[in-house]
Amino acid sequence: MTSSAALIQAIEKFAYWMQTYALPLWQQQAIEASSGACAESMNEDGLAAFSLDRRTRVQARQMFTFAAAYQQGWCSQGREVVEGIQRYLDTYAQHPTYPGAYVFKLDAAHQVVDDSLDTYDCAFFLLAWAYQFSVFGDMQAKARADQLLSLLDKQFKGKPAGWLEGSQGGTRRQNPHMHLFEAFLAWFEASKDAKWLARAAEIFSLFELCFFDHRHGVLYEYFQQDLRPLSFAEGQVVEPGHHMEWVWLLRRYQSFTGAPVDDYCHTLYERGLQFGQDINGLLFDEVDNLGGVKKASKRLWTVTELIKAHLAEARHGRPGAELAAANAIEALFNQHLNTAVCGFYIERLDNHNQPLAQQAPATSMYHLMMACLEACQYERDLLV
């Protein structure tokens, strides 16, 4: 079997699982009928944990997931699900201080238990609304995105650059910027409005000047207020999964702008595999800048980002990347999707790749859906 044939077979398996098992399970069992809200997580028996507090980022990620599912023809009720989640947010979660934003967390009775605003969460609202605009032609989603972007600029723009963490302040991170980058690119693709690409360019500059360590070839996570990186004594880590996510994002940015990202992608990809991959093809959660393993557990999202990075590099002709993508999809099934309840998933493995007993967080559906979208697009392009 050729590498392309092996990859197509793996992609079709992935898409079948998403359409046939995961989406129906999360729609039927994890959407609260009375409110339209998504459950925070699901138990191993396939029943949602509706009694838990609900972070609004979960709602945003599930709006993206079901909008994308509707777009693919995988969920005929996707629009109703998305509109129900949006009504829930507008009814219960609107921020009292920052118009156009939402509080961090509600309880199961829809009462606000944490009214902080998190820039990381805002990135996912922007992403969800980009898909609502693109898939449903929802002009209100565009107005929401414009209002939230204006709020971020007026209230949370950081110095010398970038955006602050939100209303609580704290150590600055690359992660919210990475997801803003993703959302800005999604909005540019959906709207062709150059303002979104200009915002993405700001974050690309931050990546080049602050987040990426040119000496060691790694991406740092945590920064002082002036965007100087924390020391390792202060808690600095390197996350191989984020190396892979940036490979995919930089390739997307390159497709819109022609930016010279080849060297960055090569280094992030090679270092991520060299420092972060175990013998089973999974990625450790955390390493240091010299490749020492700091946290040997493996979360599900790191595999989905590995799949996306392999596909992005395969598009650019990297030898072996197609087969690597096929193998990563198989690793996802063998290690994370091999569950008694079809559509459920194992969120975290220990250092011996044994499942850690825990609920499946709804947030991981975003990672699974985005990887599945990329894989299906790659297959379509192969078959043209």
TrEMBL record:
<keyword id="KW-0413">Isomerase</keyword>
<dbReference type="InterPro" id="IPR012341">
    <property type="entry name" value="6hp_glycosidase-like_sf"/>
</dbReference>
<dbReference type="InterPro" id="IPR010819">
    <property type="entry name" value="AGE/CE"/>
</dbReference>
<dbReference type="Pfam" id="PF07221">
    <property type="entry name" value="GlcNAc_2-epim"/>
</dbReference>
<comment type="similarity">
    <text>Belongs to the N-acylglucosamine 2-epimerase family.</text>
</comment>
<dbReference type="InterPro" id="IPR008928">
    <property type="entry name" value="6-hairpin_glycosidase_sf"/>
</dbReference>
<protein>
    <submittedName>
        <fullName>AGE family epimerase/isomerase</fullName>
    </submittedName>
</protein>
